[in-house]
Amino acid sequence: MTPSISYHFSTVARLTARGFAARGLTSRLAFSPANSARRGFYQTPRKRLFGAANKPSTSLSGMEQFKIRLIQTEKEFESIIINAMVKEGWGPGLQDAECFMACDPTAGFVGELNGKPICCATMAKYGDSYAFGGSYVVDKEFRGKEYGKKVYDAAVASVKHYPTIALISGLKGEEINKRNGFRSLFYGAFFIFNIPTTIACFSETSITSPGVKIKRIEEVNKQALFMYDTTVFGFERHGFLSKWLRMTDSHARVAIDSEGSIVGYTVARPTFITGSYKIGPLFADSEAIAEKLLKAVFEELLRLEGPAPVVCIDAPTKKATKLCERLQGKRSLELVYMVMNDLPDACFDKWFGYTTVQLG
Ligand SMILES: CC(C)(COP(=O)(O)OP(=O)(O)OC[C@H]1O[C@@H](n2cnc3c(N)ncnc32)[C@H](O)[C@@H]1OP(=O)(O)O)[C@@H](O)C(=O)NCCC(=O)NCCS
Question: What pTM was estimated for this model as a whole?
Answer without folding.
Answer: 0.86
